[in-house]
Amino acid sequence: MELRVADRWYGDLRARLLSSILLAPVAVAAVLAGGPWFDLMIAVIGMVLVMEWHRLYRRGQRDRVSLGLEGGTIAAAIALGAFGRPVAAIAVVAGCAAAMALVFRQQPAGFWGPIGVAYVSIPCLALIWLRLDPASGTAIVLWLVLVVWATDIGAYFVGRLVGGPKLWAAISPSKTWAGLVGGTVAAAVVGLVVAGAFQTPGTAWLSMLGAPMAVVAQAGDLTESAVKRHFGVKDSGHLIPGHGGLFDRVDGLLFAATAVAVIRLVVEPGG
Prior knowledge:
Blueprint: H1 2-33, H2 35-57, H3 64-82, H4 86-103, H5 112-132, H6 137-162, E1 166-168, E2 172-176, H7 177-198, H8 210-231, H9 246-267
Helix pairs in contact: 1-2, 1-6, 2-3, 2-5, 3-4, 3-5, 4-5, 5-6, 5-9, 6-7, 6-8, 6-9, 7-8, 8-9
């Protein structure tokens, strides 16, 4: 029995490592390159996420009209964000989401489409807005990505090695309090080290945010788990071996990116 558990663990770990080796360099390269390369990556992520969300709440049945509206809204918002028009982008998201809620209100899952549009587009816009800062955009987004990765890695290994009481068994049976602590400690250390290494203006406040962002990221993970549980599915898709769909890989990043953007607005209101 122990051997079978170990085989599943190491098999899962191998798949996760392979996925990370393939995807991490692409993500880091896009963050460092910035400009259209980063915007293109966010656009691709946004389109994949909205398709996964649509498949999730439509229970595998595609509705071309609603999918077209959802994808079109996110594409328009990302384009406006890339051209430095975040307020206009948010207005487009709010207006289109409200219109979709009105049009599809009679359908059983009518409100899930607008919810998905906001769920995907707001974090995408947050990432684009953060990266647009010429002085500290690269540092902030790279810090954010590394802290979320540290959270995932710390939670995975400590949770598997220590085990113990479940964090929220009804929503995510595999997550433990030990994993939460491990992810938080890992993120705090990585956040402090990376923030100290940048030496760029406008990033000193990041050094205090590693642990809080770990909690936010894991809240994002649990939120997606709750949505999947509601619709009776294990993964949002099968795009990434070892992780399921893209949503399963970036669920924590979506929440953390939004939180960091809000904090930056408070810390640097003119930024």
